[in-house]
């Protein structure tokens, strides 16, 4: 199954929320009548595109249609959504750079976003691509969190560094990165505890973990991946803003997109925060995730 088909399947509920009430209007070219614009605005808001981004998306689409009389509304919306999600001159590269060993990824987010599951899936893909990976279980608060990561490490065929429940997360990260340097590990994925972005003490602890990464491996963390739950829609916007104040978020991973009608929030988050989306989760299986491609995602929203 190609990437567009995966997005199309995963975004079925979101697409139905957008396309369902518009009938054949998406296939029309030329000036868009006020009634259609009103329906379109309602549909985008229902899909959690958000008011500001909805206004920007519609305006971009109308501008495109004015410049190209043959372009229909669907094509204009796809191109405009792609533009809003394509942050920066080039797509973010979620892979080790030259001379970066170990390449350290700090995986952060709120409780229940799917960080631990995503860490395991990423480790499996790196290992399969010839990059020996190490998982670091820095979530020492949630009961059995490290046990869950052990299961994923076994499935992925990678090593893991863990400590007893209640241990200092920064100390676990120190030990993990020290081990990675000694073993010649290519990639280290640090699974941090889920924390509400409003809990200042826990956010300060995350800042400490980030500092320890840099002390053990200069320049680390090389990538801070913020995992957002796609079913939470625009709530992810507030989460991303707060995490970005504590650690330098490099890119976003959006999970659970296969079961939500709120996938339009990805457009809003990329547009509002100017932080690129690098990865998306589209199911429960080991390989049910994909690198993010804005064009394919935009097409999955409207076709």
Helical fraction equals 40-55%
Q: Which regions have little confidence, pLDDT < 50, spanning 5+ residues?
A: none
The separation of the N and C termini measures: 16 Å
What's the structural domain tally?
2
The third-level CATH topology of the largest domain is Rossmann fold
Secondary-structure-derived class: alpha/beta
Strand order of the largest sheet: 3-2-4-1-5-6-7-8
Largest sheet: 8 strands, mixed
**Helix tally?**
12
Q: What is the C-level CATH assignment of the largest domain?
A: Alpha Beta
Shape: elongated
The CATH level-2 architecture of the largest domain is identified as 3-Layer(aba) Sandwich
Q: What is the H/E order?
A: HHHHHEHEHEHEHEHEHEEH
Secondary structure layout:
Blueprint: H1 3-10, H2 12-19, H3 34-46, H4 51-67, H5 73-85, E1 103-108, H6 115-128, E2 133-138, H7 145-156, E3 159-161, H8 169-183, E4 187-192, H9 200-216, E5 223-229, H10 235-246, E6 251-255, H11 265-273, E7 277-281, E8 289-291, H12 294-302
Parallel strand pairs: 1-4, 1-5, 2-3, 2-4, 5-6, 6-7
Antiparallel strand pairs: 7-8
């Amino acid at each position: 199954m190609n990437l567009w088909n995966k997005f199309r399947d995963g975004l079925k509920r979101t697409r139905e929320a957008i396309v369902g009430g518009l009938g054949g209007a998406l296939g029309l070219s030329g000036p868009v009548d006020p009634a259609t614009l009103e329906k379109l605005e309602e549909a985008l808001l229902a899909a959690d595109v958000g008011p500001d981004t909805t206004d920007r998306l519609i305006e971009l689409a109308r501008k495109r249609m004015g410049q190209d009389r043959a372009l229909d509304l669907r094509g204009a919306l796809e191109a405009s959504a792609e533009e809003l999600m394509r942050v920066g001159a080039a797509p973010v590269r979620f892979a080790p750079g030259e001379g970066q060993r170990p390449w350290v990824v700090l995986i952060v987010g709120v409780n229940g976003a799917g960080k631990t599951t995503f860490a395991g899936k990423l480790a499996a893909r790196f290992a399969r691509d010839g990059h020996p990976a190490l998982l670091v279980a820095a979530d020492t608060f949630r009961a059995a969190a490290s046990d869950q990561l052990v299961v994923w490490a076994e499935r992925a065929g990678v090593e893991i560094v863990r400590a007893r429940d209640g241990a200092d997360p920064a100390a676990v990260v120190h030990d993990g990165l020290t081990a990675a340097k000694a073993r010649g590990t290519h990639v280290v994925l640090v699974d941090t505890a889920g924390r509400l972005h409003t809990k200042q003490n826990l956010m300060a602890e995350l800042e400490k973990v980030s500092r320890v990464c840099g002390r053990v491996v200069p320049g680390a963390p090389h990538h801070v991946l913020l995992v957002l739950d796609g079913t939470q829609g625009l709530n992810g916007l507030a989460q991303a803003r707060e995490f970005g104040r504590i650690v330098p978020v490099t890119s976003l991973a959006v999970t659970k997109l296969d079961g939500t009608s709120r996938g339009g929030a990805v457009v809003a988050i990329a547009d509002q925060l100017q932080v690129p989306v690098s990865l998306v989760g589209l199911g429960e299986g080991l390989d049910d995730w994909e690198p993010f491609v804005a064009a394919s995602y935009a097409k999955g929203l409207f076709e």
